[in-house]
Amino acid sequence: MKKICFDIGGSSIKVITFDENNKIILKEKIDHVGAKDNSVDGKGVSETSDATKNLKMLKRIPLIKCLENIANYITQMGEEVKVGITIPGVVDSKNYKVLSKSAISDIDEDILGFFKKQKLVKQILIENDARAAAIGEMVYGQNKKITNALILTIGSGIGGGIIINKKVYKGSHLTSGEFGKTMANISDHGSLYPNLSVGFLSTTAMCYRYTIAAGSEKLINGHELMQLVEQKEPIATQLFDNWIKTLTRFLINVSILDPDKILIGGGISANETFMNALKNEVNNLDYSSIMKFNVEACKLSNDAACYGMLALIEKEYIEE
């Protein structure tokens, strides 16, 4: 039986279909339908500052729209399948519940009940996207050769998976690895929201900053941002340099867990310019006062989360 793994992101849904031998048959993306205007710290985008007026850049997608798009995709396949879905935010995989908003809104949905009505779905599993990426990278990307590791996924937000003794650590409240919710500036005692790491480290945050700085009315994507960096466009280059330096200092903080490796995932990890700049910044740190750590790109790059769901479906990784 084929396995279809869906990785729900802020801009689209990544789909990988695996055959009976776990070989990739097809990789593609599903565009989101039914996105809603987002808000920033309780305000609409047009209210946040003069610079953002007339910009409709930030979107949230209702969970039910994602589920419907996935169900329609499966129906079009026309055959029985096993399904794995990764979702950003806090996810209770055992009870099929999403517990926190992210790029996905209106999260109070009966996911298991929804898919029980889909006759072609013979098995359904869900998991947090970054945690699934950690599982996929550990099992298939690293061939189970890592014992302790951090997987940092950089995309619409900032997520992570923490591997301890070959097991993905979930925490007491299923919130482990929510690196985007850490404080980027601990000395600012004002509003918490502007100082969250997600606003300084995510690819979407960088694209947003570039769009504002350039005075554009259209939000660029990560691929377009890196093209501008490689073309040495001044605004993009300055933002990129600051991004790499800020991300490196964040990695210093999380390195206290003493992992074998810190692995970078998400779409940006496939960009050589990005990874080379990050590695160079990390290698040039003064390690006389901090602990040395290794940083690499995930071998599975942006496919890691889908592979994580495959590992769960195939019981290549079993939660205790």
From TrEMBL:
Protein family per UniProt: Belongs to the ROK (NagC/XylR) family.
Native source organism of the sequence: Williamsoniiplasma luminosum
SUPFAM superfamilies: Actin-like ATPase domain
Pfam families for the chain: ROK (PF00480)
Protein name: ROK family protein
PROSITE patterns on file: ROK (PS01125)
